[in-house]
Amino acid sequence: MARYSRNDQAGVELPKAKLDRESIRQALELFRYLRPYQGRFGAALAALFLGSLLSLAFPYLAGSIVDAAVLRTQGGGSMAGADRTALLLLGILALQAGLSYFHFLSFATVGQRSLVDLRRDAYARMISLPMTFFAQRRVGELASRLSADLIQIEDTVIGILPQFLRQTTMLVGGITLIAVTSLKLTGIMLVSLPVLTVVAVVFGRKTRKISREAQDRLADTATIVEETLQGIVNVKAFANEGYELTRYHEGLGKFLVATLRGARLRAAFIAFIIFALFGSIVLVLWSGARLLQQGEITFGELTRFILYTTFVAGAMGQFAELYSQLQKAIGATQRVRELLRETGEVEPLLGPAPASRLPRLRGDVVFESVHFTYPARQGVEVLHAINLAAASGERIAVVGPSGAGKSTLISLLLRLYDPSAGRLLIDGRDARDYRLTELRGQMAMVPQEVLLFGGSIAENIAYGKPGVSREEIEQAARQANAHDFIQAFPEGYGTLVGDRGIKLSGGQRQRVAIARAILKNPAILILDEATSSLDSESERLIQEALETLMRGRTSFIIAHRLATVRHVDRIVVIAGGRVVESGTHEQLQALTDGLYRRLAALQFRE
Hints:
Layout: H1 20-28, H2 38-73, H3 80-128, H4 131-135, H5 139-181, H6 183-190, H7 193-230, H8 232-237, H9 241-293, H10 299-341, E1 365-373, E2 381-390, E3 395-399, H11 406-413, E4 421-426, E5 429-430, H12 436-440, E6 443-446, H13 457-462, H14 470-479, H15 483-488, H16 506-520, E7 524-528, H17 536-550, E8 554-558, E9 570-575, E10 578-583, H18 585-589, H19 595-605
Helix pairs in contact: 1-10, 2-3, 2-5, 2-10, 3-5, 5-6, 5-7, 5-10, 6-9, 7-9, 7-10, 9-10, 14-16, 16-17
């Protein structure tokens, strides 16, 4: 499995930026998303190049007009040639305007389409990654990769890259035409280029490093917002709005420090470029005036040279900012590229999931000498030699003190993780031999804390089996004892549940989750404290719905409240990551020094 990096706030050092050439090469890997649109992209490049060449014709023709005017003032020639040249210039400007419209629109279209593809693939890769990946990262950091980082890449593709190509054409073409006009003045102007190149490389390396740091600080602030909004009830319950604001303010402060440090660096670079370039122009003008006085060049040639020099200076000035922006983009692409290179559990496809080729499972489950250690906590074994078998349709309760390993056992059953040693067998086959999506497609879980997605009640129930009819949704809701309370809402099944289901009560959310599981019709069912913290009426309704749901399915019930599992087929007691007892409620109660009996005595006494 790939080794994951985190931002340094999480305690893991970020990978260092590589050499410029290697960083650029890796960043260009993302430009493979332009391939489906290479025809239009190529046409846009051609239009951009041709438009830039037409721009270079302007100084030459302007010089011709000046020479014609000077000749006319000296008593020779006529203005007819100047008139024709002016009309030609207007035609060139009209053609250039049309080319500019085409290449701008084409770059925007190609850029946005390719960025949509990149966003889709980045999101698909992210949601397909194993739990190990998410255990080592915070939600805000990941959200930042799909927002701030990709926006930076978007700006590069749509704006910076075309400008970079345009200014390159203007620079090379301008220098070439300057050389044709006067080699002496060209030599004077080019004296400064080696110095500018060295300074650009040095500033560029520092800019990329600072940009990467700024992106990471921005990701940290996104993480704080995400955590605060997810835990807004706790924030308000503990009156910690001020604390969260302070935390966010400090994160913004770190981002601001990094951003301003980069801004100062870029400002210094641009100031140096301006001074060096316009200093070169002053030197060229002074030298050109002397050559004109000596009769080595004409007024028109001097005009051409001045205009070409302005074009070259403008291109060099743009390069200063464009280069720093490209360095920022390279820093952003490193984080996105890391994500795309991770190895996922599955390859998600657009649209409804394809029909499973796996026949319906019987639901026989065997944990065979299973050991497990979380990858992020190497050296701390959570499960030790777990041996547990569940026959098809059997209802098994897993109980024990907090931290005993109950939830970890369920995580292995869902294959969120694989055993460090031993095997998990389903219907006699190693669970790793099944396609992951097909295996999970025959499992369902009703968690303690039900997460509903923003949308309607009907959409949340249908999440268990996308594409089902309204009749099937309502039938599942009836079996989950949810139909009556849903119909009581003015919008019925179209009622919006709010963020994370906040508009519904705990019992209502649980019944929606049960309806979702009923609709999925799983072979293996997992109930994780599905009736905890509910009032007696809600618990009765949910317990009835769970009895319907568990009928004919292999069921694993994690429970702290032992009264809810007294009538299951078997109770498994876990302590310290080991199975210490197993049997029915009556059998375990009969063990005079058993852990289950002590736990039951404490609860039933209450």
